[in-house]
Amino acid sequence: MSVEASDAEHNAAKEFINMFVEKNGSVVYDDVESLPKRSSSLHCSKEEIQGECLFIALEYLRDSGASEIVASTVAHRATVRALESDLSSFEEDVSVFDKRPDSDEEDESKMDRKVIKAYNCGKLAITTVNAVHEVCKEWKSNMPKLMKSKYVYEIYMHSEQNTRRRMEDKHIVLTEFNNLCGLDKDFPSQAFFAVYDGHGGIDCACYTIAHFHNNIAKQKTFSSDLDDALRKAFLTTDKLFLEKAKNENLRAGTTSVVALLRDNTLHIGWLGDSQISMCKQGRAVKLMEPHKPNRKDERQRIEELGGCVIWIGDWRVNGNIAVSRSIGDKDHKPYVSADPDTLEFDLEGDEEYLILGCDGLWDTIQPPNVIEMVQEHLAGGGARSQVAKFLVERAIAHGSTDNITVVVVFLDCHRTEKDPETSMDVGEVEGTGDEKVPETPAAEGTAKETGDEKAPETAAAEGATKETGDEKTEAVP
Questions:
Q1: Class of 150-224+232-288+342-417 per CATH?
Q2: Which residues are CB-contacts of 381 (< 8 A; sequence separation ≥ 6)?
């Protein structure tokens, strides 16, 4: 359940609102080009309007320096106001690609086109940003009582482009998930964390970071069966993006790993090879098995559909793509599936932190070794605030050339005093080094360990042109 914000948090909120209104209160936008925050899309469907508005409002407020309590609450109220306005004038005819079912034509100049109805995202952004200004002006005159999650997390993030030509990773942290979604104060406290590793362009990762969390909250089973809601959110996000990809001839996709903490229960879902690991009593707990084309069950699924998995510098589906499950990738469905795995894990009070990351981390350092490195870093006096950056640097030192994103969530707010004689079942712990990793019975539904096909010996990987790595470090205290 939510609790009332402290006096200090209320005062900080008032200070921000006063500053924000003084700067923006008289501004009414009517031109997309002058907006401080815009959508990554030109048009969207009716089902996507809420997600577009909510993400624009949230990012605008965050960029303006709002606390997470203020940003999430105002974003929700501004979105409600935007959706209550007359949006009919935002719907317009849009010419899109219409690839014939019996055609493999990829030359856009030779593809058929059709006209559909869609909503202008630029106009939606104008309405949303103006709604943020209106809500903040009302708050300046009559500040409401602010509610917040009863859990306060210490979170650190770091990402780097590395040697790749562009950065295609996205990540998001929503510690005030309930405020953002407008949930009742008696609803269990929730926080959401995700890493989206895009490929084939940034379109799918940009789309997913804006819509996935909203698609969870919209599911009918969100309150009663969160694992089911997570699964349906993956499928819904994939379905909607595939429609967009078909209309705009986009070939992008993204792997995904998401974690939602509802009170003391951790829910995770994933597609592809982005992963999450947990430290419990100083050791790594295996929570998941990443989806890779050479995983025995994945290879069997793909072959039963008529596809194949072959080695071309890496294990690839039909010789093309090196992931077996993802959102998007319209040209590789159904072999590349959007049906996720999910897991529910009840926290026992001795869990220390979570690490979410893309394959740029996990392909070079195995999860048990990642946890071991962090433990050594902290034991040696290393700062928590440097853990995410430390792991990115270690991955690069171990040979990673990929984009790398790491999110570290410390679980102090869930910690309880434990009996010092209580020890963890060895079956829950991931092995390190060369020892065999036991199957993890840590939570019902854990994906069983499967035998990966051994890669054939091959020459060194092709060299990559080194680009300047754009890096970013963030902290959410």
A1: alpha beta
A2: none
